[in-house]
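Table S5 (text form). Sequence records supplied for joint modeling of the two-component complex.
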Amino acid sequence: MSKLVIVGTVAFDAIETPFGKTDKILGGAATYIGLAASQFNVDGAIVSVVGGDFPKEDIKMLQEKGMDVSGLEIVENGKTFFWSGKYRNDMNTRDTLITDLNVLAEFTPKVPSAYKNSKVVMLGNLHPLVQMSVIEQMDSPELIVLDTMNFWMDSALEDLNKVIAKVDVITINDEEARQLSGEYSLVKAAQKIMEMGPKYVVIKKGEHGALLFGEDEVFFAPALPLEEVFDPTGAGDTFAGGFTGYLAKTEDYSFENMKRAIIHGSALASFCVEKFGPERLLKLSKKEVHQRLQQFKSLTQFEIELK
Amino acid sequence: MSKLVIVGTVAFDAIETPFGKTDKILGGAATYIGLAASQFNVDGAIVSVVGGDFPKEDIKMLQEKGMDVSGLEIVENGKTFFWSGKYRNDMNTRDTLITDLNVLAEFTPKVPSAYKNSKVVMLGNLHPLVQMSVIEQMDSPELIVLDTMNFWMDSALEDLNKVIAKVDVITINDEEARQLSGEYSLVKAAQKIMEMGPKYVVIKKGEHGALLFGEDEVFFAPALPLEEVFDPTGAGDTFAGGFTGYLAKTEDYSFENMKRAIIHGSALASFCVEKFGPERLLKLSKKEVHQRLQQFKSLTQFEIELK
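The corresponding structure-token record, covering 614 residues in total, follows.
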């Protein structure tokens, strides 16, 4: 069991989907990552920033889930990062309505000294310079996982490339992999991205699952076919949290174990989309997770004799 | 080993992709289905129609692959069905440039008497009335597989529904499943379609793989991630041919065996897209197929202990 450092937003989200809408609710990449990682009882620390308007009970909840919050800065006279978005009917595209950076605009991450020796680092989607600062504060991590998005490819590519050169795993979606590599074929895109630094590339395809590429290997995990996707917000972060949480717990970074980590991440993400925000993750029993892993097995496993 | 009846087009195709273009080459649903099914050395019969312009050596080729062609009518003074299409840069969308029905316009299928007792029937994409005529000529088939498309949902839905009520398996793509059922969620779409008749629904998602739904079960087979998709023409038919060919060979219509059939279909389809038209299927060694099945195993199989 390794310690896990998580950097990312802790935020308010207001979400509208074809099924309804919320007021400001708990959100943010680090929130979802932390909640997913907590399923593995890892000793995790959330490095982030919130304003004085952030509910103390949400901080307490993260602590009760086993997350250290000494690296969660509270700017008492500031406001918490706020994002608002609306999903279209297909649930695959969303329009951002509001992005108020607030306290995030001047965020300088501080990794708690007790966590500088963590072996696993999860860099949630943030400005590449913030991600780099976290890398530089770590003693000698064994596995750094990077999540990023097209926004940083458009606005801070040089900084992003420096981060990419330093990480072991990158998780991005298919369109972002194409943009970053200039290759339409995801196989070629992954190869090019691996040349930029990472040993493993995880390409997230939303409802179409996720691909894991290693040097000479590739693995595919489908998304669980669901009757209803209620709210996709946080699914990618939940996936990343399940992935790194499992790897921090097992401390085995082989391709075989990454496959298991991908399946665990996919299983947790499949819960996330069932309710608004992180609601479903907050009340998740071991038994439910176990049953869902069993569903992933039934969904994908087959017997063909090959002599 | 069961006999297999295949009804579908035998045609000329002219294809343009970002990688190049062809003159009129061999095409048609029944051609791809037959070539894929021939991998399993099944005793298959192609029921179709061509014009006097159709090359005798192509008919001979189908025979050499083990296909009975006594149900392949030759209208000497007619012209073979011709389709021409152009793929866009993403290779997922194509525009139809020409559709000359020619001899297909007055096609009345005749199942050879030696094949009326076949246990497996593959109804390739054609007018539902033609598909129904084939069903009515069969003695007592154990498995009828239907392929169809949105064109018939738009133009001949009543006839199509009658066919759907009589088949065991339907294979359609995701958009067609949504159109046919009126449900966006593929899980709900499959449930509704099963209420219309079929015991199993196969939803093809192209580069995103295929889903197999049974009463209480679901299985997912990814498409093999390829460096280059050269020409997608015939991939869906090749999938269907591999699927039914494997089932005709094994005569086991359980969900477990359907899973194997789906994997075999996916493996053969992954070859089809590597070259123009059916070229790649014509020269396919057992060893190559074996290696590709192995790739599907590596791509999807994982070990997670669930107590």
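Note: The domain at 3-300 of chain B is CATH 3.40.1190.20 (UDP-N-acetylmuramoyl-L-alanine:D-glutamate ligase).
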